[in-house]
Design brief:
2 copies of one chain form a homodimer. The first copy, chain A, is 40% helix and 20% strand. Chain A has 399 residues and is an alpha/beta fold. Chains A and B meet through strand 12 and helix 10 of A and strand 12 and helix 10 of B.
Chain lengths: 399, 399
């Protein structure tokens, strides 16, 4: 419920104004081009309060006036307000087989993107971070050249993180455990007013789907990230369900066969041991040398039986884990990304059949969809999270 | 954030007072014996506002003054306020092998409890409900004889429910699908001002653990209900995580073996097919005639190998499902109820070993605990939910 706006003074009143600044900014984010009158009507604040809040937001540089008047009362037309497309956030990604950086502007465009293929399994943080800092510098320079000021950023990694302390707790496919990045993160975007945070790659990709993908249709879904590891993110009621420590959605380590092979997590029979990239390559008899995905896709196109049955097996076990997750979390839609999206043609029938076999009617075929965001899902989600963090605390930029 | 209290008038101001009535009542619920001065300090409302709100609550009969003065400022001592122990809620339960009713008073005591052993598999609703109405009448009479006025109630069933429409969507172990109880529920407690709601038995038992059991230690846990079926409830951040349609926590239908037997849900290899009561009796070679639990416990005490291995198998598969749930929902504690609690001595070692085998370190042994609420867990949870619903809307009783 909005509180009456009052000028900023000490203590509680300042809090109220902070809250109202975020409220008005959220209104502009939700409804780009809205007028001050529209914001007043939506928020319940007076027009005078809205005008004063908007003046502060314009001064902060977070919003700007749109030249086109979108609505207008009798008399003079209102001026539309939009998030300033000349502001943005940086995203950086460490994954098992690549590093990447990207810039998302406040208009929601991924205006810069660079990816570096690299085998990162067993790489030391001290070896990877300098590479990533170089890439981030190029991204920031490209943003500056386009007139975009970067206010904050997020690094996303394929493992469990403690986002409060900026520690990677466990990323078995990198070979990382208890890696403290609190000293490294600021180097990715020096001096950024909102700093650089840390997140899990599958959660970031799930949020990208929510805000820029299938979230337009499904308010609740499981996102499954197919990389070397298999990760996941649960979206419930248009929010990420992160669980008590922020580690929910780890579908890759659900047990899908009690007598399955040992897993990097220390357990056995995990989904990842059947549906992770290495598991599929190995089942298809494809050796270590890259590009293994290209060779797998070629064999599938040729109808190679070993390749087809390797992918079908992955789809069958994926169906078991999705069915079990649907039972526990009560979601009835699944979005598949990473290599699952690349393998859609061959994996979808096996997955849908498995779902119907193990949990009839629970996840209808029309609710099994594939990500259209490609390799950039996690980057977009990480940057979009940073943008939302900035928009949630506009008062940081207001003197 | 509390709003300044104002006398009730039309529209918005009335809403503010409603909110403040609930706020003050929640303060009394949380802290029985609190004084008006203590409530004012906790809530940020003025003492005058609190006094006026408390006057309304006293008139509603929801709270009463405690004769003992618990604190006191200089000058006259304050009078303590408590929830009125002469108000309460009714709970009713339909389960596969019993019907039950109970009365929970506002002091949190289960002051009446009646259970009827009965094979309800395949029973028609029209056959069961009249029996339950008779039992509810006896419960209400017993409550009245003890001076307890019942203000509302809840019926809890072993299946998925639509709580908005009061429909049992699916209870495969009863053989029910799409059973509309909206006409039947009011008969359980005619004229009750807060009516009678409908809930899932495992969710009710999970809430009973949260409020009256292991929730004192664990803010986040999976509750597993062992009855003929295996159900579950997820508590995250001291709240039930119900999922988009209220069906989350259905651990009984997670797939724990891809080649497992067919299940009543239409799937196969579900936990229930290995760890439900019938599955254990059947694996132990115990026939249909009751009391099968007594015979199983006797054989276990005698060290009968078939019985021991049947229970260990159930524990092993239970461990797989708990491990997978811990991955997806990020909970690291599990509370086991129903027959799992009765079998604690024999099932706990197999369960803990399985957890450690499939997900090392995820759910430490000290976080595997057994319910102490016995058969009454679901009843207590259903009645306590009704009590909380009543306390959330005190204005319904204030003219």
């Amino acid at each position: 419920m909005p509180h009456p706006s009052t000028p900023p003074t000490a203590g509680r009143v300042g809090d109220v104004r902070r809250q109202n600044l975020a409220l008005v900014l959220a209104g502009i984010h939700r409804n780009g081009g809205v007028t001050r009158a529209g914001l007043a009507a939506d928020s319940g604040l007076t027009k005078a309060s809205v005008s004063s809040l908007v003046a502060d937001l314009l001064e902060s540089g977070l919003v700007c006036e749109d030249s086109v008047a979108r609505d207008g009362e009798r008399g003079r037309p209102g001026t539309g307000l939009v998030l300033n497309p000349a502001r943005g956030a940086l995203a950086a990604e460490i994954n098992v087989d690549h590093l990447a950086v990207g810039v998302l502007d406040f208009a929601g465009q991924l205006s810069f993107h660079e990816s570096l293929e690299r085998r990162n399994r067993g790489s030391r943080p001290g070896e990877l971070l300098p590479l990533l800092v170089d890439m981030a510098e190029r991204a920031a320079a490209a943003a500056a050249a386009s007139g975009i000021e970067l206010l904050g950023g997020e690094l996303t990694v394929p493992g469990l993180v403690d986002a409060e302390r900026n520690v990677v707790l466990s990323a078995p496919n990198l070979g990382w455990a208890g890696v403290d990045l609190s000293g490294e993160l600021p180097k990715l975007l020096p001096g950024a007013p909102f700093g650089v945070s840390l997140s899990n790659e599958a959660n970031s990709a799930a949020l990208a789907e929510l805000w820029h993908g299938h979230g337009a249709v499904f308010p609740d879904f499981l996102y499954v990230s197919g990389e070397v590891g298999v990760g996941g993110g649960l979206v419930v009621g248009r929010r990420l369900f992160a669980g008590p420590q922020g580690h929910a959605g780890e579908i890759g380590h659900m047990v899908v066969h009690p007598e399955g092979p040992p897993c990097a997590c220390g357990g056995r029979g995990c989904l990842e041991t059947f549906a992770g990239q290495d598991a599929i390559y190995s089942a298809a008899g494809i050796e270590q040398d890259p590009p293994r995905m290209g060779r797998l896709l070629n064999r599938l196109s040729d109808g190679d039986e070993g390749a087809v049955s390797a992918v079908e097996q992955a789809g069958r076990y994926l169906g078991i884990a999705v069915a079990s997750t649907a039972r526990v979390a009560n979601v009835s839609a699944v979005v598949l990304g990473g290599h699952f999206a690349a393998l859609q043609e061959w994996i979808a029938p096996a997955l849908c059949q498995s779902l119907e076999h193990y949990a009839p009617g629970l996840v209808p075929g029309g609710n099994v969809v594939f990500s259209g965001l490609g390799q950039t899902g996690a980057l977009i989600g990480a940057a979009a999270t940073s943008v939302r963090r900035i928009l949630g605390s506009p008062y940081e930029l207001i003197p």
